[in-house]
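User: Okay, second chain of the day. Same drill as before: sequence in, structure tokens out.
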Amino acid sequence: SSVENRFSVWFTGGSLRPAEGVDMEAWSDIFHEKRFETSRTIGDRAKVLAAKLLLGAEIPHSIDADGSMSYCFHRPIPGHVDVLYTDETLQVLKGNRGSVMVLSREGTTPVVRPEKISSRRESINKSAEKGQARVA
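Assistant: Same drill. Structure tokens below.
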């Protein structure tokens, strides 16, 4: 069935990179390749193997010089997102598994208009599953 403000998505990959101003030494300590491999439990290793076999996942084994790591799926995962709120600088989405994402346009400062938030608060709260953050 068709749901208003719902968009189909295919998860083909992504990247993880440090935010501006992050302590790169601490970041490196967390994601260093030796720690990557030695800290994985048998269960974690099984999940990585399953991702490689079922999704054709390419998983990073080290971090790039700028601290980033990228992964991709050669057999993408289907899903959907519902747009709960959007304006020129800000967007609030809810994923098909209940995750809530708040996105801001790069290079802009989000301006939250109280009247828009008030009008969407009930809708967002109804959409949020038990245990998810609610708009106060």
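Residues 98 and 131 are 10 Å apart (CA to CA).

User: Thanks, on to the next one.
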